[in-house]
Specification:
heterodimer; A: mainly alpha; 0% strand; B: alpha/beta; Rossmann fold; 2 domains; two-stranded antiparallel ribbon
Chain lengths: 490, 327
């Protein structure tokens, strides 16, 4: 006997399942759309990809599909409409829906009986009507394709590292030393000709592919690799000193001077922002003379008086920088005698590096000058004596300020004097290059012939590293690095 | 509550009636079915067609097949309401004179209002009460009409001079409006044979009683129609209203007034009767389709633009049918 009740129960279940499937498909596709947008955002560097993010995205898609299924399934179908749709699709003569109507009214039993007899003889194949259709599959297919695309974007394509704005002053200083370490990713730097051009604007020839030697010996992030014995404070210090305060101050003063030149008003004054920047820099400056000069800028002077103070501060800073570069040159001079001549000549000729003329060099050959220089460096950074040589070209003045370490410091050129390099490295400013995964700078092609005789090797720097009181782990890293780039030789 | 016997008798009755009518009428299956459906639905039928197509013969054949009282009223411009409804006449009974009601021809089971549009609106309106309420009011007295009662009216669509188009209120009281068309070649040949050989045209003998007709009418009302199909009929009727959201573009442009709720009733009742006539135990979509146009074609009133452009109501109904989804 034909049972309409059972049929209604079956088609209701089937219909709810299909509705759930349809709802799940829609929410699945929508959720995948969101995930795809996120993948595109990762691809363009909006935020960094993380495993937790990927897992969260997959979880989000799954939960969205589940929610769509539950919501779709929760909606109760209209049985009369379902029955009529089956009737129309199967051309049953609207028997099912009419029988439902008769049963719900409890009327005309003879007619009910006749309809049931007809349905009994030809049971409707209602499953052919309530089946998964193309419109219900489409969201799943579209969502699947979008999900695959999202995974492809998130997994196989590495996000580009945003280009680091290189400080021209920093780059030129690094290139003048013949060795540079790019702060950006090595592969990107090698592929990016523009980035190479930024490193040395004077070069017209495109940079050759560089070998990331440091990256080879640093398979893991420095804080977890060979530098694992560095404390967090040391690493943080290296990060903080990413920008030399003197460079920043130089830029700021240059900007102030430019502004002073185009502003003829007597009311010319520093803006609050400039004052804030000056105060911040003031705290990081090692030189008390420079600090005093900058303090005068903040004293509230205006007009020409302020302009003069700015110019004085700039001159003082330039002198200090020149002095520091001159001391950096002493590092080259400290190379052993058998390498010193070739290295210095080759470097100055091939790389085009011209040692800056400093007050210390101006006094080359003078015992007073040598004493003054060594004496200042032995006092260490942050002493007023550090500023004395550029401020005063008279050796007597410098000699009068020599400290207790004067007698123990060898004269320039007599050997490697690790104390001299402390000031050159600054207050941890150059340390960041040890922490930053990067590439050594390669000279232009026409100068590369002499690059094999770079004076830098580990033995020459060992005393320097010991003087820096670096941890054994960092020293081992530096040694490995030098062995790599010199391939065992000098 | 109907029984199996009622159902069987209804099917048998309709078979006999169809056979009897076909003895006199050749072809015109649609019109014959419309007549039978109107009878089963307790409705009235307006037959429209040019002269000579057998409209009057159809009604006479039906009346002859039914063992019922039949009246024929030839509508003319000078016909008065009293000529249809009857009037009070002064009579003398035992020396006492009094007004006695003399029933008119409306008091019959089957009334043929031939060329109904030739009478004045005043006379035409005399049919209103009889057609809808099945009663006649004369003076202060109201007289019920005997069931079954059906008015079968005819009108000529081309001979318009000296005619009075039926008022909307009256035309809405016709369940269907059936257009009688020209017979086909085979049908025309058969018509000539029947009318020119031997005794000529003969009307059928009675095959159905009033009780059987009433029983069949009760069965029709028990035929089930699914609730979504009932909603579908409502949407179809609303689709003829220009202000309705369901209305097609042309309906909005050319229709002044859409079909009344009587139209929806007519469609559903007609579909039920059509299903019974087809031997089906329930209403199907095809049953609705069969009665949709005759039930609505006289109830949709074109606006001036529609009249001016000669838009056919049938075309608009066809459009409404196509553009209205079942679900």
């Amino acid at each position: 006997m034909f049972s309409l009740s059972r049929l209604e129960r079956d088609i209701a279940q089937r219909s709810r399942a299909l509705r759930g499937l349809r709802g799940a498909g829609i929410t699945f596709a929508a959720a995948v759309g969101v995930v795809l947008a996120g993948s595109v955002a990762i691809r363009f560097g909006a935020f960094a990809p993380r495993l937790a993010l990927s897992l969260g995205a997959l979880l989000f898609v799954g939960l969205a599909a589940l929610a769509g299924y539950l919501v779709g399934r929760a909606r109760r179908p209209s049985i009369p409409r379902l029955l009529l749709s089956i009737d129309l699709a199967l051309a049953t003569g609207e028997r099912l829906s009419s029988l439902h109507e008769l049963r719900s009214r409890g009327a005309a039993p003879p007619l009910q009986k006749r309809i049931e007899e007809i349905l009994e003889q030809a049971p409707p194949a209602w499953r052919r009507v309530l089946r998964i259709r193309r419109t219900e599959v489409f969201p799943w297919v579209a969502g699947g394709v979008a999900l695959a695309l999202a995974i492809f974007l998130a997994v196989t394509i590495a996000p580009p590292v945003p280009a680091t704005a290189a400080d021209p002053g920093e780059v030129s200083r690094i290139s003048s030393k013949g060795t540079a370490v790019s702060p950006s990713d090595s592969g990107e730097a090698a592929a990016d000709g523009a980035a190479a051009g930024r490193l040395d604007p004077g070069q017209s020839e495109p940079a050759l592919p560089l070998v990331d030697t440091l990256a080879e010996i640093l398979p893991a992030p420095p804080s977890r690799g060979l530098l694992s014995d560095l404390t967090d404070e040391e690493v943080a210090q290296g990060s903080r000193s990413a920008r030399d305060p003197r460079e920043a101050l130089s830029e700021l003063l240059s900007q102030l001077m430019s502004r002073a030149q185009i502003d003829p008003r007597q009311s010319f004054a520093l803006t609050e922002r400039e004052k804030t920047a000056l105060r911040d820099l003031l705290q990081d400056l090692p030189s008390s003379g420079l600090r005093q000069s900058l303090s005068s800028l903040l004293s509230g002077e205006t007009g020409d008086a302020l302009k003069d103070q700015i110019a004085d501060s700039k001159r003082l800073l330039d002198s200090l920088n020149q002095s520091a570069e001159g001391e950096g040159n002493a590092q080259v001079d400290s190379v052993p005698e058998d390498q010193k001549t070739d290295a210095s000549e080759d470097e100055s000729e091939s790389i085009g590096w011209v040692p800056p003329v400093t007050s210390a060099e101006g006094n080359t050959g003078s015992a007073e000058g040598g004493e003054r220089q060594s004496g200042t460096k032995l006092d260490g950074p942050g002493t007023e004596d550090e500023l004395a040589p550029p401020l005063n070209d008279e050796g007597g003045t410098a000699a009068g300020r020599t400290g207790p370490g004067e007698g123990s410091a060898p004269p320039p050129g007599a050997g490697f004097v690790p104390e001299d390099l402390l000031g050159s490295l600054g207050a941890g400013g150059d340390m960041r290059r040890f922490f930053t995964k990067g590439m050594p700078f390669e000279p232009p092609a026409e100068e590369r012939g002499s690059a094999a005789v770079l004076p830098l090797d580990y033995e020459a720097l060992r005393a320097l590293l010991e003087a820096r009181a670096l941890t054994p782990g960092v020293q081992a890293l530096v040694r490995t690095y030098f062995e790599k780039i010199t391939q065992g030789g000098p | 509550m109907i029984t199996e016997r009622d159902l069987d008798q209804a099917h048998a009755l309709l078979g006999r009636l169809r056979g009897a009518i076909n003895e006199a009428i050749v072809g015109q299956k649609t019109v014959v079915d419309a007549t039978l459906i109107a009878l089963l639905c307790r409705g009235n039928l307006l037959l429209e067609g040019v002269p000579g197509l057998g409209k009057t013969l159809l009604v006479r054949a039906l009346a002859s097949a039914l063992r019922l009282r039949f009246s024929r009223i030839q509508f003319t411009p000078d016909l008065m309401p009293a000529d249809i409804l009857g009037t009070n006449i002064l009579s003398e009974d035992g020396g006492r004179r009094q007004f006695t009601y003399s029933p008119g021809p409306i008091f019959a089971n089957v009334v043929l209002a031939d060329e109904v549009n030739r009478a004045t609106p005043k006379t035409q309106s005399a049919l209103l009460e009889a057609m809808e309420e099945r009663t006649v009011t004369v003076g202060k007295a109201t007289y019920p009409l005997e069931a079954p009662f059906i008015v079968l009216a005819t009108q000529n669509p081309i001979e318009m001079e000296g005619t009075y188009p039926l008022p909307e209120a009256q035309i809405d009281r016709f369940l269907f409006k059936a257009s009688v068309g020209y017979p086909s070649l085979e049908d025309l040949t058969a018509i000539t044979e029947r009318n020119t050989e031997s005794a000529g045209l003969t009307l059928p003998k009675p095959v159905a009683s009033a009780e059987e007709i009433l029983s069949a009418q009760a069965v029709v009302r028990e035929i089930p129609i699914a609730w979504p199909l009932r909603q579908y009929v409502s949407r179809l009727v609303l689709a003829t209203h220009p202000e309705s959201e369901h209305a097609p573009k042309d309906v909005k442009s050319f229709v002044e007034y859409g079909a009344s709720p009587r139209a929806a009733i007519a469609v559903i009742l007609g579909a039920k009767a059509h299903a019974l006539l087809a031997g089906e135990p329930n209403v199907r979509k095809v049953d609705i389709e069969a009665v949709f146009r005759p039930a609505l074609v006289h109830r949709v009133i074109l606006n001036f633009r529609g009249e001016a452009e000669g838009v056919s109501v049938s075309t608009l109904l066809e459009q409404a049918w196509k553009e209205t989804p079942v679900l």
